[in-house]
Each structure stands twice: as C-alpha cells, then as structure tokens.
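Q: I'm teaching a short session on how sequence maps to structure, and I want students to see two examples side by side rather than one. Could you give me a first protein with its sequence written out and its structure tokens following it? Keep the formatting plain so it prints cleanly on a handout.
A: Of course. Example one:
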Amino acid sequence: MKTYIFILFALLLAIPTYGLSIVIYFLLKFLNDKYLAQNYIFKNVMSSYNTGERITISNVSDSSLYMLFDSFDGKVTADLNNYIRGYIVHPINNITLSIILHKLKNDKVDIKVSDSNYILKEF
C-alpha cells in the first residue's frame, strides 16, 4: 500500500505546477524549522542547563538555530564559522541563559548552556 501512495505522490509532483511545489516545499521547511526543530533544540538547551553538561544533537538546520534566538527575543553575540554564542531569557523561569552552539559535521550541533553571570565571570 505504501508503494502505491508513493507512486501516486510522485505522479502528482511530476505534473507541472509552475513553481508551486517549490513554494510548498519551502513553506513546509520553514514551519518545520520554526516549530518542530526549535522545540527540539530548546528542550536540549534546558537539558544542558539542568545537567551542566554538553549535549550533541543531530539533524538540525542552521536556520533553526537562529530562529531559537529570534523566538525568545535573544541576542546573538558572536557568530563565527562553527560557533554561535548568544543569550535568551527563559519565558517561565525568567533566567538569562548563555548558549554556545558548536556546529559539527553532518548537521550535528554541540550545545553548552549556563547562567549568563557564570559565563561572564569565566571569560
């Protein structure tokens, strides 16, 4: 049954859509980055904050990393080739989190989170 559904889906996409299929693709990608991936990243950010350890996550696009800071009115303070550093305020606990994201190979991201006061004293 799955094969028939995939064949039907492929035939529907084969029909010329005058660019509508690419618009739908980017709309679905934006919604995925905005809601699903961002929630996945934020859960791992809070897990790193609670445990105090680095967490590595996979299958994350670069745009969803920046959307995390935008959605919580955060600020990106350093944007190097493989590192993103910034601050966000937790919406419920009202604590300022300092986040360091290290982009690894194969769409993997290493997350390190701590209180902003601790990070500022560390450097």
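Q: Perfect. Now a second example for contrast.
A: Example two:
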Amino acid sequence: MFDKVLIQPDLREKLTLAIRNKKMPHAIFLKGEQGGGNLPIAFSIAREVLNMDKNKGLFGEAPSDDRADRLAHPDLHIVFPIQQLISKKQTTCEQFVNEFREHYLNHPYTDLNSWLEQVGHADKDPIISVSEAEAIIKKLSLRSYEGGFQVMIIWMPERMNMECSNKLLKILEEPEPKKLIIMVGEEWENMLPTIRSRMQLLTVKPFSKMEVASWLTENREISYSAAEKIAEKAEGNPRTASELASGIVVDENDNLVNEWLKACQNYDHVKVILLSDEFSGLTRAERSTFIRSLLARVRKALAQDQLSIKQASKMQEIMEASLYHLSRYAHAKTLFLDMSLKTCKILKGT
C-alpha cells in the first residue's frame, strides 16, 4: 500500500493497519503544508478504501483498479475551493471537476495558487460555499454505485465559509456506514471546534531533504547527486522539488535571489524597489519558490558562518511570515518591499 506516494513510514503503517483491519474512522483531517504530500496521500487512501471490498484474487490481493488513481471512480467525490462567479446561481466545483482532474494528474503535489492559475482565478479569494455543502450531503445520502464505500475528499477545508461548515456538521455528527470524509488542509487550528471534535487528525510532517532526494531518484530519471541539489533548493517540499526536476521552475530564479541579497547587503533601497516590480510579475508559484530559495540561502549562510544565529533566525522568521501572507493573497509588491526593508535592517545591524 502507498507505494506510489511520498509518505513517512509511521503514517504509512498506521493507515495500512487501519485499512486492512477495516477500522478507518469516518472522518479524518490530513494536515500538512501545501505541496507537501497530503493530497496524494488522501487519494491513495481513497484508492485502497474503494478497492478493499473487491473480490480477492488468488494471492489475497484485490484486483487492479486504477479508476481512483485517475480520479474517475464513481464513488470518489472531490471538493475544492473556487472563485464564486457572478451569476444568479452559486458556483460549485462540479463545474470545474474535469479541469481539476487534469491539473492534479499532471501536478499531484499541487498547491492552491497553482490550481487557481490553471483555471484563471489567480489573485482571487476562493471559497467553499454552502452550495458545496448541500451537494456533499446529497452525494453522500445516495447509495454507492458499487455497493462499497463512498469517499469524499475536501481539499483546503479552511476555505469553507461559516454556512458551509455548519451545514456539514450534520453528516459529521451522524456518520453513515461506509462513508469516508477526508479533509486535506494546513490550518487545522482554524477549523470550527465542533468539526475538529468529530475528526481524527493525521499530520503529514515535513519531509527531510534525504527523503525527497530518494523519492526523486525513484520517480524521475535523474541521478542521486542531482536529486540532492534539487531537494536542498526545494527545502524538502515535494511540489517545489517536482517542479524543479521538471524544469517548470528554472534556475533563472537564482539571478533574482542573487540581486536581492546584494541589494539588501548594500542597503540599496532603489534597487529593492526596482526588484519589487520583477517580483510582482512572477506567478504565485514562482514567488513561493523565490522565498523558499531565500530560506535555503539563509540556512547555508548560517552553516558557513556568514550570518550570526540571531540574524539568520530573524531573517527566517520574516521569510516564513512572507510565505504565509503570500498564501493569504497579500499584495505582492507590498509583501516584497516589507520583507526586503526588514532584511536590510537586519543585515545592517539596526
């Protein structure tokens, strides 16, 4: 089980035992950073659960069924955040499910920004509306197509508005047999307490650079030494590593990193302002990769005694805060200038 995804051994063992012993909880929350692997793990859980009631073969294994892998199983349902279009009727993700399926199959370690760019909703604030909750309840109230489990995957549930959250409480409070709800997000703490109390939390911890490098070597036609360099630059994030390995994020990004660091070291505010235009012209995925590259440079500089522990700690705090605000749709130019000016002060020692 779970041989196609990047997953920690302890989580793999826990999930494998639960599925084999048919003791899966009715609702779980897979917590992890975006692009960190929790979404592929969720679909892998769905695949195993949807196949576990199939007639066993000669050696006790269920027959191969790749419909869940293709997100095409009739008992697999998917919900994700979308931008509400201006119309009399509320938009639901059913209108975008084909686009999501294609996007995920090409980029399984995707994040919300990449998905929104795919459907032309970048720089919008997507939600999961109460109409979506009504659709979820309706789908799970029906009998399964194949007589086994139904699996509902809700990606980024922290994007549910209050009406949606309250509406879903009923199916969480009164779970029906053979209905599995998997929420996949990163802000468990921001979910309603009444929802948290009815779900089992499973955390997908950040992967080590060695784990990501090994995964890249097994799944890509690259050497281990090349995979190590990619994992280092990606800060252990599978999405960033996958994009680097595919050439989606190109090394020209290093030029911007070098120019920015030089401008901050020289306290060159004019250059910083010029670079802010370049930063705001990047896609959200590229902005995220840029900041992750800065974090990698800071840690490398600390290891080489080019920065003090105090300087590195403060810079890391600023950059991690910038990553968070970027995910919350902060204005790109303002975010870049704020991060830059604070870094200038740290490097100058003021």
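Q: What should students look for in example two?
A: Point them to this: Confidence is low (pLDDT under 50) at residues 56-64. Also worth mentioning: The first helix runs from residue 9 to 20.
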